[in-house]
Amino acid sequence: MALNQVHNTKNPDIPPKLFTFDRTYGSSSTQREVYDDVAHSIVHSVMCGYNGTILAYGQTASSKTFTMDGLVNPQNSQNPHRLELKESGDTGVYVKNLTSVTVQSVPDINRLLLVHHFYTTPYTPG
């Protein structure tokens, strides 16, 4: 665990802010290093049937999506479909036309990642 201080350079009279992080990564960190340190044990648990969540938080354009997804190039990345959030008095908030899929192997997950990229890549008209 690391304790970091952030100083206000515009007003040095303001005391530094203190932040605690389990891990921090600099610009020379590799995707493999981040995966091994943060995600590997969670992915292993998910493959054993447990729920798991990995949250990537960071500055815009800091490669969060690449770190989470890696290199995936679907053949058709242009799709005008959008996910729609709906609300029902009976079931609460839900995603319209959401599909639940059970996966049992790495190839199953890779197929779902391709579908994910197909539906989440912004549509750019011709």
Automatic annotation (TrEMBL):
Residues 1-126 form the Kinesin motor domain. InterPro entries: Kinesin-like_fam (IPR027640), Kinesin_motor_dom (IPR001752), Kinesin_motor_dom_sf (IPR036961), P-loop_NTPase (IPR027417). It holds the Pfam family Kinesin. Signal peptide: none annotated. The keyword Coiled coil applies. Belongs to the TRAFAC class myosin-kinesin ATPase superfamily. Kinesin family. This is Kinesin motor domain-containing protein. It comes from Riccia sorocarpa. The lineage of its organism: Eukaryota, Viridiplantae, Streptophyta, Embryophyta, Marchantiophyta.
